[in-house]
Design brief:
The protein is of the alpha+beta class. Among the domains are: 208 residues, no CATH class; 55 residues. The strands form five sheets. The chain has a three-stranded antiparallel β-sheet with strand order 5-4-9. It has a three-stranded antiparallel β-sheet with strand order 6-7-8, with no helix packed on it. Helix 1 packs across helix 2, helix 2 crosses helix 4 and helix 5 runs antiparallel to helix 8. The radius of gyration is 33 Å and the shape is elongated.
Length: 395
């Protein structure tokens, strides 16, 4: 029986009407200040955070890169070669190729929004997989299905919500879901408030430098008590203003121009006596919260907070454990793709997913650790032999 392509026609999303608009003058990402943690997270909030704060974007990108790749091992060498070739060349989305691209997109959605939904598209003949697809979450509705004790994936088309026709072709991953919830929690959950404070500091720095760095002048003319000079005070003020404007235009064009005035004329730089407050401490405090949430060492994000640029063994172990946690979440999705491929090809579902080694330390340190392990095994073997000999002599 042929399996229809569910995503043959893309679903369109109707934009909701907005009655009134108010421009936020705080900073370009003012939506962060209106975020309420008790409500359902808005994906636009996390997108704005990643766009506004480069450290968040770097942390997500580096996490995806550090997770690494994998390969499939099968008892049958022919099946193993065939499935690895398929995974390397399978179309992904509209312009990418390879299972690694699918996994990277899947993990990116998982980290950003806490939930990731992908689809396996069989060929028209139903004997092969035509492509893999990561669905945008903003057009999906994920509901509880008490009859099957599994999430129910629906596609939202305006006011219409339609369940997917073939749920067995859907792969879904969640990150640290709460008890009883079907959707996971974003890696950025808990950071909207911190990000809002950080953006306020950045915006204030920009405003202060615009006011103080871009020097503006106040030209003041004070006429004397002479009645004749007071009678022509307005004309002299206009003349002084014209001469000052001419001098400033010449300076902007790179010409040296002097300003000459008669009478009591004073010139002051506006804001020159103000001092920009030191923001290093509050910025670092906000950055520390972001780094603690993402789990990436500061030096990998371009933050020079220590005198050394290497991770300790404890930091490497913690990061390795974090990466293996993401791998465990991704493994069922990869396994589902491989199972469907082997089923369509008529092969037994006998395979193993082997992830690449995570190398976060120097090769010298790894070699030294291996040497210590071998020495410990040798000592244990010698002790065991010595104990056996002593027992034999006693017997």
């Amino acid at each position: 029986m042929k399996i229809e392509n569910i995503f043959k026609k893309k679903q369109s999303v109707s934009a909701s009407a907005v009655l009134q608009t108010v421009r936020d003058n705080s900073h370009p990402f003012g939506a962060l200040s209106r975020y309420t943690p008790l409500l359902k997270p808005e994906y636009a909030i996390y997108d704005a955070m990643r766009e506004a704060i480069p450290v968040i974007d770097a942390a997500i990108s580096k996490t995806i890169a550090l997770v690494g790749g994998f390969e499939i091992k099968c008892p049958n060498q022919k099946v193993e070669r065939e499935i690895n070739e398929f995974l390397e060349n399978v179309p992904v989305g509209n312009s990418m190729t390879g299972i690694n691209c699918f996994v990277s997109q899947h993990l990116e959605s998982l980290l950003m929004y806490g939930t990731s939904v992908g689809e396996i598209l069989p060929s028209v003949s139903g004997k092969d997989i035509a492509a893999l697809y990561n669905a945008p979450l903003n057009i999906l509705e994920i509901e509880k299905d008490p009859m099957r004790h599994s999430p129910k994936i629906c596609v939202r088309n305006g006011a219409n919500i339609t369940p997917v026709k073939y749920p067995n072709l859907i792969v879904m991953s969640t990150l640290n879901p709460k008890a009883g919830e079907v959707c996971g929690r974003s890696l950025l959950s808990g950071l909207p408030f911190v990000s809002d404070v950080l953006l306020k500091i950045f915006n204030t720095i920009g405003v202060n430098f615009e006011r103080i760095g871009n020097v503006r002048f106040a030209v003041t003319y004070k006429p004397s008590s002479d009645a004749g000079e007071r009678a022509y005070a307005k004309e002299r003020a206009n003349q002084i203003a014209k001469e000052w404007a001419r001098a400033m235009r010449d300076n902007a064009d790179g010409k040296v121009s002097d300003f000459v005035a008669i009478g009591d004329v004073s010139i002051k730089a506006i804001g020159a006596d103000n001092i920009i407050p030191d923001c290093n401490i509050p910025v670092r405090q906000m950055m520390e919260q972001i780094v603690a949430r993402t789990g990436i060492p500061p030096f990998m994000l371009g933050l020079s907070w220590s005198t050394t640029e290497r991770m300790s063994s404890q930091q490497a172990d913690m990061l390795t454990s974090e990466l293996w946690n993401y791998r465990r979440i991704l493994t069922p999705a990869i396994k589902r793709v491989c199972e469907i491929y082997l089923t369509l090809k008529g092969y037994p579902k006998n395979f193993e997913i082997v992830w690449d080694n995570i190398c976060l330390q120097d090769e010298v340190e790894l070699a030294r650790a291996d040497l210590i392990k071998m020495q410990a095994k040798k000592i244990a073997f010698e002790i065991e032999n010595e104990t056996r000999k002593n027992m034999e002599e006693i017997a």
